[in-house]
Amino acid sequence: MKIKNSNSEKGTEALGYELGLLLKNEPKIVILLDGELGSGKTTFTKGLAKAYGVTQIVNSPTYTIMKKYKTNDYKRTFYHLDLYRLDGVGSDFDLEEYIDGQGMIVVEWPFQVEDLLPRDYLLVKINKTSDYEREFTMTCVGYPCKRAVDYI
Ligand SMILES: Nc1ncnc2c1ncn2[C@@H]1O[C@H](COP(=O)(O)OP(=O)(O)OP(=O)(O)O)[C@@H](O)[C@H]1O
Ligand SMILES: [Mg+2]
């Protein structure tokens, strides 16, 4: 487990970028972003995507549940899921339906759906400690993110 802090939107994107660089060579990595409205999940995701090699602008996919981006070399895929609007829909949402293969998979509001959790994932819990301050608690469950969480 690792705790990091940011005191600006830029700082949060930079932290996402830093983490993204540490994870970009993993064939498959799931990152769950847990935090209240406006805590900075999408901002953090922008940094992750940039580090992964996505040149397109990453915006909140709230009304589409998922947006899929290719890296600039077209070799890898970045998935950005936002499960916020699944509130109350039940648990018929299957992450596997959306994610066929490999890549970096970032999920906002991951706990909207029961039993969504894959076996290996990196959980980033974001706490809004003031208007501009955010505290990030990173926990690696399973294998692929252990080293990244140690290094960051
Ligand atoms: N340290 C900070 N890190 C990130 N965002 C910050 C910070 N300080 C202030 N903000 C503001 O908080 C907001 C974060 O928005 P963002 O869309 O990233 O949140 P979110 O967690 O994705 O929200 P939602 O749950 O609606 O998807 C922005 O308006 C940003 O300017
Ligand atoms: Mg968001």
Summarize the structure.
The chain is an alpha/beta fold and 152 residues long. The protein is 24% helix and 30% strand. A 7-stranded mixed β-sheet has the order 1-7-6-2-5-4-3.
**Ions, cofactors, ligands: which are bound?**
adenosine-5'-triphosphate, magnesium ion
Give the number of helices: 4
Structural class: alpha/beta
Which word captures the global form?
A: globular
Indicate the low-confidence ranges by residue numbers: none
Q: Largest sheet, if any? A: 7 strands, mixed
Please trace the helix and strand order, writing H or E for each element: EHEHEEHEEEH
- Proportion of strand residues: 25-35%
- What's the domain count? 1
Strand order, largest beta sheet: 1-7-6-2-5-4-3
CATH topology: Rossmann fold
Q: What does the average pLDDT come to?
A: 90
Instruction: Please write the CATH class name.
Output: Alpha Beta
What is the CA–CA distance across the termini? 11 Å
Our Rg estimate from Cα atoms comes to 14 Å
Descriptive report:
The chain is an alpha/beta fold and 152 residues long. It has one domain (2-86, 96-151): P-loop containing nucleotide triphosphate hydrolases (Rossmann fold, 3-Layer(aba) Sandwich). The chain is 24% helix and 30% strand. The protein contains 4 helices and 7 strands; from the N terminus they run E-H-E-H-E-E-H-E-E-E-H. The chain has helices spanning 9-23, 41-52, 95-98, 146-151, and strands at 2-6, 28-34, 66-70, 77-82, 103-108, 121-128, 134-141. It has a 7-stranded mixed sheet with strand order 1-7-6-2-5-4-3. Strand 6 (121-128) and strand 7 form a beta hairpin. Helix 1 crosses helix 2. The longest helix is centred in the N-terminal third of the chain and has 15 residues, at 9-23. The protein is globular. The model has no long low-confidence stretch (mean pLDDT 90). Bound molecules: adenosine-5'-triphosphate (ATP) and magnesium ion. The site of magnesium ion has 5 residues, from helix 2.
